[in-house]
Amino acid sequence: MSTIRNHVQLIGNVGQEPTITNLESGKKVARFSLATNEYYKDSKGEKQTDTNWHTVVAWGKTAEIVEKYVEKGKEVGITGKLKTRTYTTDDGNQRYVTEVVADEILLLGNKSDK
Predict the structure, then answer these.
(1) Cys-Cys link to 80, which of 17, 47, 60, 102 (CB 3.0-4.6 A)?
(2) CA–CA gap between residue 104 and residue 62 (Å, rounded)
(3) How does it assemble (predicted)?
(4) DSSP tag of 101
């Protein structure tokens, strides 16, 4: 049962080109936004879309896959976990950020996609 604790699975479209950072340790980290859509019909029977945005962070080999194959607009599947961190802004306010730390990335879509 411990494998389903803090487990996230998402399928969505990449919202911006991933940013890749090479750390001093030689490790890579990739960050990108992912849009997931839910569809429903409103009270008038019209189709509506609810879009949620997620920040995805990938480390090491997963970051290398992101660097090579993931680009804006590409449909991807993500498995990972949620991680919340805090930071202090320049004006002294504390902020909280929740990110999806990706363990695996599945490239979706047609082979004809770039």
Answers:
(1) 102
(2) 7
(3) Homotetramer.
(4) E
End-to-end CA distance of the chain: 38
Model confidence over 23-38: pLDDT tens digits?
999 899 999 999 999 9
For the entire predicted model, the pTM comes to 0.84
Q: What would the pLDDT profile of 49-77 be if each residue is shown by its tens digit?
A: 999 999 999 999 999 999 999 999 999 99
Q: What is the dihedral of CA 49, 73, 83, 60, to 10 degrees?
A: 160
Q: Looking at the DSSP assignment, which residues form a beta bridge with residue 34? A: 14, 54
| C-alpha 113 chain-centroid distance | 19
- The CB-side HSE value for 66 (13 A sphere, CA atoms) comes to 30
Question: Would you state the pLDDT for residue 56?
Answer: 97
Alpha helix segments (H runs only) across 12-76:
60-69
Cβ atoms within 10 Å of 7's Cβ, excluding its own: 12
Q: Record the tokens describing residue 112, joined without a space.
A: 């004809």
The encoded tokens of residue 64 equal 């290398």
